[in-house]
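Summary for the steering committee. One of the milestones for this cycle was to obtain a three-dimensional model of the protein with iron/sulfur cluster bound, which we needed before selecting residues for the alanine scan. The sequence and ligand used are listed below.
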Amino acid sequence: MEDAAAPRHSRAPGGTLQRGRGDAQGFPVTRTAAGVARSARAARDLAVLDARVSGCRACPRLVSWREEVARVRRASFRDQDYWGRPVPGLGPADARIAVVGLAPAAHGGNRTGRVFTGDRSGDWIFAALWRAGLASQPTSTHVGDGLELTGVRVAAAVRCAPPDNAPTPAERDTCNPWLARELALLPRLRVVVVLGGFGWTAMWPVLAGAGYALPRPRPAFGHGAEVTLSGPRGELTVLGSYHVSQQNTFTGRLTEPMLDAVLSRATELAAGEAGQPGSGHPVGGGPRP
Ligand code: SF4
């Protein structure tokens, strides 16, 4: 069942405060897995999709966790209003590359309302996107900090912060339609960079649903794994990368050169024509080695 509570105010995905629009904070509410599938399918553009994602309450465990974290807050962020909602994707509709992570961090995206923003994982991925010429600046600290992406859309397989960074398979499956629709709304998409094994597993049903023929058995996840699929829009390449979690970056399992190499491959594959956004040509000042 889907419903809408009384309007009060909202902070739209991307961050501006809006008043008098939509439900309790301006977004349509979705409460069931079937509602997610239906609502995602019917979203006509990314703005509508982002608003619907932001109002989703289909996973009770995650709703409860994200809201509790937002209520209690970390001491160092006590003076901030947490987003406390699902976190929509970020980046333009003409993106040729999508980067898909696991889920928002409790005090990162769940706090700032922007994917990968406000935590160490975000520091890594946005710095790497900047070095690849896909981001206007190497940092992503809060909505309104001036960050713009070119040629790339960044999203998560699961949109709500999970306890212990561990969504259940059922929660992953419930959330999948949001990602499926998001990828479908990127008509120029050529490459999907998947961060981590969880996202890798989540990606196959999404791509099967989008009409791509999947190899059997499913390709194993690994850093630098590369699979090219044929589908309704031609070829799509899926690249694997270790996740930018602190578990990987602190231990040296994932280094900056390793991440840069995957993004370099992504921009190379995305380059249908020289100078296309997402083709790896510097946009907004990112250095190229
Ligand atoms: S994880 Fe996804 S499906 Fe579940 S409540 Fe959050 S946005 Fe909705």
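Key point for the committee: The pocket of iron/sulfur cluster is lined by residues 36, 53, 56-59, 62-63, 86, 158-160, 171, 174-175 (CB under 6 Å).
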